[in-house]
């Protein structure tokens, strides 16, 4: 156990994750909720990845990005949810110092990567609708790979910076984190160091991540809307908008839940935890549903898989 009276972060060997505060009789129900939703996250995203990989009709830039989005959603849920489920039923509710560092690093990595991948998907839709004749030239396989690799690189750099400033602090005040996973804000609250530099780094990273991704998405859709409105037939306009509706739904869901998490008043930690559950569990559960229900190609690919299973049976 870490020494609570120590004045150096290296003396802390583990942290206690308080988790979501519910009455003891509701622990089993909370565990069941996490289990069911996490199972749906696994099923939905693994199914989406499998369909994209196996169906040659989905070998396009849009589905390449969508497959990576499913991998990211699956990954950041897996980084947090299994440990949270164990702690719901456990009396100790501890996480090692190294485990906490790894959890925050991976959570930040996938969260930032997702923001940049969604921006790349907006650019893809912009090229597809505004420059359809040049689509295959501009959205080459190599460019798609570079965009995804660049997204992961941005996530990796921001995560390194985040954990460097977070875990350079001293934790002599407490080792009890009032959350169900290791996040920078509740960790800062148990530090006895000056957190001004941490706040500045977090703010700078938020600006550098959110501003360019939002600008790319907004500008892309401004051009898309302008182009679509010039289409004379209502059927043509409907078809063009339908290719963007799923992406807009996912973007709205992501930024809506993340805003809810980080704009929740700090004096209401329980509400912030509920908001985090929405982002970590329900967003990755809903993303595959949004794309499968509103996308004809994905629905056709799913029907093909179901039909093959029926034939085999």
Automatic annotation (TrEMBL):
It is found in: Cell membrane. Pfam families: 7tm_4. Keywords: Cell membrane, G-protein coupled receptor, Membrane, Olfaction, Receptor, Sensory transduction, Transducer, Transmembrane, Transmembrane helix. Its main location: membrane. The chain crosses the membrane at residues 29-51, 63-82, 147-171, 203-229, 241-262, 274-293. Coiled coil: none annotated. The keyword Membrane applies. InterPro entries: GPCR_Rhodpsn, GPCR_Rhodpsn_7TM, Olfact_rcpt, Olfactory_GPCR. It comes from the Eukaryota. It is a multi-pass membrane protein. PANTHER family: OLFACTORY RECEPTOR. Belongs to the G-protein coupled receptor 1 family. This is Olfactory receptor.
């Amino acid at each position: 156990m870490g020494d609570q009276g120590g004045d150096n972060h290296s003396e802390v060997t583990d942290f206690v994750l308080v988790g979501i505060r519910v009455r003891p009789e509701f622990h089993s129900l909370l565990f069941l909720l996490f289990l069911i939703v996490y199972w749906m996250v696994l099923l939905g995203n693994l199914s989406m990845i499998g369909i994209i990989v196996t169906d040659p009709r989905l070998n396009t830039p849009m589905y390449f990005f969508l497959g990576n989005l499913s991998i990211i959603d699956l990954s950041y849920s897996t980084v947090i949810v299994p440990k949270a489920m164990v702690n719901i039923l456990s009396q100790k509710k501890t996480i090692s110092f190294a485990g906490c560092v790894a959890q925050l690093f991976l959570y930040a990595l996938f969260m930032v990567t997702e923001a940049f991948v969604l921006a790349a998907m907006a650019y893809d839709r912009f090229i597809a609708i505004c420059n359809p004749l040049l689509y295959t030239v501009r959205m080459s396989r190599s460019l798609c790979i570079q965009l995804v690799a660049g997204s992961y690189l941005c996530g990796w750099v921001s995560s390194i910076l985040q954990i460097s400033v977070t875990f350079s602090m001293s934790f002599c005040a407490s080792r009890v984190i009032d959350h169900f996973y290791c996040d920078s804000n509740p960790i800062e609250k148990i530090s006895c160091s000056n957190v001004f530099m941490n706040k500045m780094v977090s703010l700078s990273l938020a600006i550098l991540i959110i501003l360019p991704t939002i600008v790319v998405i907004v500008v892309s859709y401004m051009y898309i809307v302008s182009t679509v409105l010039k289409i004379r037939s209502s059927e043509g306009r409907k078809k063009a908008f339908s290719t963007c509706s799923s992406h807009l739904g996912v973007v709205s869901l992501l930024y809506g839940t993340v805003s809810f998490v980080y704009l929740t008043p700090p004096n209401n930690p329980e509400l912030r935890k509920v908001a985090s559950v929405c982002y970590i569990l329900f967003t990755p559960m809903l993303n595959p549903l949004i794309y499968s229900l509103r996308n004809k190609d994905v629905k056709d690919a799913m029907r093909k898989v179901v039909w093959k299973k029926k034939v085999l049976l």
